[in-house]
Amino acid sequence: MGSLRVNNPGLLTTIQDAGRIGYGQYGIPSAGAMDSLSLQLANILVGNNRYEAAIEITFMGPEIEFYENLIIAITGANISPRINGREIEMYSTIYVNKGDVLSFTSLKKGCRAYLAVSGGFKLSSIMNSKSTYLRGKFGGLEGRKLKKGDILLVNIEKGYKYLGVRRIPRDFIPDFRNQYTARVIMGPEDHRFTEEGINTFLASEYTLSNQCDRMGYRLNGAKIEHKEGADIISGGITLGAIQVPGHGEPIIMMADRQTTGGYTKIANVISVDIPYLAQLKAGDKISFEKISIKEAQELVRKREEKIIKIIDRFEEIKLDEPINSSRNFNIRLNGKEFNIGVQELI
């Protein structure tokens, strides 16, 4: 029968992992999780490889029925997750039992959440990735978003039955807002813009337009002035690249971006800030701050150190698996969440 069933798919629910790395030379977009940090944290909570495939949920969450006892975790946007109608904690291990139903009620912060399952999903890997690329119609489950009635199998034999209660430290949980200042590395074609154009880019606040999706974000706001036009010989497009077409309004390239493009690129959003961009939606505000490559590298190093510390701490307190007759319950008492294991002795 499988391990879980999609009773209601939500708005845009897909399978995503770290993406297809190294295939851009063949014209294959990387795809992958828009918010790679939330993907990693969800997987860490359930004992998976950090980049294992998970369910990416956009704006409106699905309803999922579990056919097995599983360990799950939900990170990213707060879309008010509930088990059997009861609110559950995000950024924490959650134990679900056979017959439990996961649902989501309302979007509070951000716009993309991630659901990881201990053991990961049994899906074919295409070009070393299980990620769904919707425009290409491959990866994930039949190359499409999830629909009502879909069954997803879980690698139960690779997962854990018990991990205690893991929680991401509060000071490492992202605070998603509707205004964000993204740090950027200038270039590679910033020399194609006037000094006034550069100043406009760095001093202005832009609004995300309705033309925002997994491929890219079109921004509305002050026009950025070119020196000699916007067109260049097509070149590679990196994650977070900021193209400026002839109309002068920037476009930020995201996970499903094309592999090459012929518009001038004024700057690139640093990798540490991409997860925050992934949680912005139409109408939200964004501005830009220039930093150096050395500063960007230091930010990556510090974030990686924190992630490793979290993993090491969880590994130190990893508990043995209980016997198969045990069941786990999440109980809320006086505003606190407790995980209780019940084991049959006789």
TrEMBL record:
Stored SUPFAM superfamilies: Cyclophilin-like
PANTHER family found in the cross-reference section: 5-OXOPROLINASE SUBUNIT C (PTHR43309)
Segments forming domain Carboxyltransferase: 25-306
Alphabetically ordered keywords of this record: ATP-binding, Hydrolase, Nucleotide-binding
Protein known as: Biotin-dependent carboxylase uncharacterized domain-containing protein
Any one Gene Ontology molecular-function term assigned to this protein's record: ATP binding
Domain of life: Bacteria
Family matches, as InterPro entries: CT_A_B (IPR003778), Cyclophilin-like_dom_sf (IPR029000), PxpC (IPR052708)
Pfam families named in the record: CT_A_B
Entries under Gene3D superfamilies matching the protein: Cyclophilin-like
